Amino acid sequence: MLGEICGILWVPESASSSGQVPLILAGQPGGPAGLDLTYPALRGRAQSAARAGFATATIELPGSGARAEPAGVDQARAELRQAVTDGKRVADDLIDRLVLPLVDRAVPEWQSTLDALLAVPEIGDRVGYSGGVISVGTRLAAVEPRISAAVLFAGSYVPRTIMEEARHVTIPLYVLLQWDDEHNDRHVALDLFDAFGTREKTLNANLGGHTGVPQHAGEEATRFFTRHLRSVEGGPAVERARATPPRERR
After folding, report:
1. Among 19, 61, 163, 169, which has the highest number of CB atoms less than 10 A from its own CB?
2. What is the mean pLDDT of the chain?
3. pLDDT tens digits along 93-148
4. What is the value of pTM for the model shown?
5. The CA-based dihedral angle spanning residues 185, 192, 65, 7, taken in that order and rounded to the nearest 10 degrees
6. Which among 230, 244, 239 is positioned nearest to 127, based on CA atoms?
């Protein structure tokens, strides 16, 4: 616990103060599902990361689990459902009211969490961000200098403010896009990808729906982090970390 924020840290068994490992911040998908419901998927991601020599940490977003929604989000979500049901265009103002309160609260919470995580003796100073709400990941990548690389999962309903902030993202990016995603608009995802200011960005687009991300796309994301987070590390500690499961801390 960090104040009211629940979270989990997974650390490879072989990590130590003399054999520190890079850290991946694993974003939550948003919505009411808390850590109890998303735990199996997150644990799978953490185990995969541990085999590659990374620690993984996640926190519960505002509005997830037992945490209260940011003010106004409940009403905005109801208006969104009605607009989708009626087949109407979702207005920019509605997107702002739905997404920006979450971003405004979640990003400072991630930064406070990162302060605490970097004090853990086994954790090194190389940090990546992976998954979660793409608007949260975009702002975090734009404002947090301790994050060296990010893997983002394409999603719809990106506020105009976040599109502008994307131009200030200069770290390496790897963006996953499901071409036939029934929940997301690929055109919004492509516009956001185009807006990112970094000169090192990769878009991995695959046919299929929201839950159909192919295994090879996830494996490539791990290789992406290996290139960008292990560049100043390596040596025997890499192989030891690959061979051991992660310890879990809540």
Report:
1. 61
2. 85
3. 999 999 999 999 999 999 999 999 999 999 999 999 998 899 999 999 999 999 99
4. 0.86
5. 140
6. 230
What is the per-residue DSSP string for 207-234? SS-TT---HHHHHHHHHHHHHHHSTT--
Phi-psi region of 240 (alpha: psi -120 to 50; beta: other; left: phi over 0): alpha
Candidate CATH numbers 3.90.190.20, 3.40.640.10, 3.90.79.10, 3.40.50.1820; the one for domain 7-71+106-249: 3.40.50.1820
pLDDT band at 210 (very low <50, low <70, confident <90, very high): low
Phi and psi (nearest 5°) for 203?
-110, 120
CA distance 89 to 175: 25
Instruction: Please report, for the chain, how many H helices and E strands are present, in that order.
Output: 8, 8
pLDDT digits (tens, 9 = 90+) for 164-206: 999 999 999 999 988 877 777 888 899 999 999 999 999 988 8
Among 4, 3, 15, 85, CA closest to 248: 15
SS3 state of residue 100: helix
β-sheet bridge partners, residue 129: 25, 150
The residues, ordered by sequence, that sit 6+ positions from 88 with a Cβ below 8 Å of its Cβ are: none
Q: Cα separation of 55 and 202, whole Å?
A: 23
Domain locations along the chain = 7-71+106-249
Tokens of 150: 């990010």
